[in-house]
Amino acid sequence: MANEAVKYVWEGAIPLQIHLHKSDVASHPAPPPALVLAPRIGYLPLLIPHIKPYFKDSLPPGEDSIWFDYKGVPLKWYIPTGVLFDLLCAEPERPWNLTIHFRGYPSNILIPCEGEDFVKWNFVNSLKEAQYIINGNCKNVMNMSQSDQEDLWTSVMNGDLDAYTKLSPKLKMATIEDDFSRKASLSSPQSRQGATEMDVAGQVKTARVPVRLYVRSINQDFENLEDVPEIDTWDDISYLNRPFEFLREEGKCFTLRNAIESLLPEFIGDKAQTSGEERSKDDDTEEADGLLREMGEIKLARIQGIEMKLEIPFSWVVNNLMNPEFYLHISVLVKAPQR
Amino acid sequence: MNSGREVSDGRLTVEGFSVAARAFADKWKIHNQSFPPWSWVPLINRTLHLSNQQEEGYLSLEEILILSSLEESPEDESLNVATDCLEKEESVDHTILVQNQENEAHYYDFHIVYSSSYKVPVLYFRGYCSGGQPLSLDVIKKDLPSCSVSLLHESKWTFITQEEHPYLNRPWFKLHPCGTEDWIKLLSQSSISTGCQMPVDLYLVSWFSVVGQVVGLRIPLEMLN
Asked: In this predicted model, what pLDDT tens digit does every residue of A196-241 receive, in sequence order?
């Protein structure tokens, strides 16, 4: 049974204003931009059937190879639309103005996307990877029947949470749990599916959570998000595809800050703020390093368009805000450590 | 987290990968002199100014020149590799070395990158011509051993896929890591009689003895000792 937060996530959408790139305009006058509502958990190429009709009469002859850019930066089509928006627009722009191209695919920068199949397989491969991280193997995804896999993908494409909720139990993903979520589930009437599988009495188990971290580093401080400089290229962003690992122990609960800091050990954060909290496990090596330098600072962490309070329990964040392929995508804006 | 001296479940820790990578590169240098050596590229992240205490990185072998052959013997489907080591005589097998139909040399880069998701190494590669233009998979297929090509036809999306390089923001080809831990475990079982332990030092050597064949790179048997 899907909860409230998950419904909001699936319903999240971004208004786009799509402009045809001038080099693709073969009509006079140039066509007006297309307005499309893009699901956050979806992918840009899936919008093409909705966008193309607006522009088809203006296109030059030839075959289409469609791609999008935002202020000159080619958009990576395999990143969920909501994540692209959260990452590239420090100050959210509504509608989000994008440019669509029908020619001149930058294949030296972007991997090809020649149709829905490409997007689907990107999704399935991410799902396999996430399952491998959570369960330790991806046999459930591999063993899923073709039609179930199709139906699961279709439910994501259509933003159909009900259909997805009926199919996702077939994946048998272990639940992500720490002491906070265990206590929360004890007080709720619903039983947590799969909790007993992973909970071996008396044993400490290492759990892994699929996380994709997109980090923008700024050198100077800023007052408003409007003052954050624009991204010129993807080289301005560090992409970290690595799982958050933790030992499930009695009394242990991780915050979002703990998770981000453990993935970015150089950003242990302001000492005054973290003195009362859990420290990341890299604490000791940091001390041993002996270097005194000003730490970097996490200025902003966005998930599903929400500017997160870093003290929120991480297990809640994962269980409620992850994408349908079971990855938690976090856009982070950091102030770089001074040297 | 220590790397341990042995691997028993087919997987590597990130520290284990660093150890295994250096061991692999060293053995390659000694036993595989017809090839240029692998180099270790540390991950010093420019934007984050990360300086990792445990040095993370990947192995790189670049600018390998491939010339297609007219006649291929069925038993020996290694890539006919030319190197620019002029001092040494290249080991030429009995196939005829000619340039491919486009009359162009094909260059290949290979990177061995650690996957923290799968806890195994992953092979990334790309091909390009002397002008630097990337080669498409259709063109690359002509340079690959035929068994790889037929496997490509069967499993279009799960064997060799074009994905973004984890660190370089460019499209590369990747050999899927699903299943790696299983066949590494099999390799460990067959080579050592006591349990299925594999010394970390030998991990990449064993791994590459299988994976390298997919892209036509063979390693001499001496490396496995």
From this structure: 334 444 344 788 999 999 999 888 777 788 888 888 999 889 899 9
Chain B residues with beta carbon closer than 8 angstroms to that of A108: 134, 170-171
CA distance A66 to A55: 12
DSSP labels for A170-202?
GG-PPPP--HHHHHHHHTSSSPPTTHHHH--TT
Q: What is the pairing mode between strands A306-307 and A297-303?
A: antiparallel
- How far apart are alpha carbons A333 and A86 in whole angstroms? 10
pLDDT digits (tens, 9 = 90+) for A167-201: 999 999 988 776 667 777 666 554 444 343 344 44
CB B182 within 8 A of CB B10: yes
Quote the minimal CA–CA distance from B62 to chain A in Å.
18
- Determine the average pLDDT of the residues in A8-20: 96
Contact (CB<8Å) A264/B48: yes
Does A111 contact B164 at a Cβ distance shorter than 8 Å?
yes
pTM for the full model? 0.84
- Which of B169, B172, B182 is the best substitution to test chain A (most A C-beta atoms within 10 A)? B169
**What is the tens place of the pLDDT at every residue in B52-75?**
555 789 999 998 887 654 334 444
- pLDDT digit string (tens) for A22-46? 988 888 888 999 999 999 999 999 9
- How far lies A67's CA from each of A38, A45, A76, B33, B164, in Å? 15, 8, 9, 44, 16
- Contact at CB, B134 and A241, closer than 8 angstroms: no
- Dihedral class, residue A233 (left if φ above 0, else alpha if ψ from -120 to 50, else beta): beta
Contact A266 B116 (CB under 8 A): no
Among A133, A265, A337, the residue with its CB nearest the CB of B117 is A133
Q: Is this complex's ipTM strictly greater than 0.85?
A: no
Instruction: Please say if B147 is a catalytic residue.
Output: no
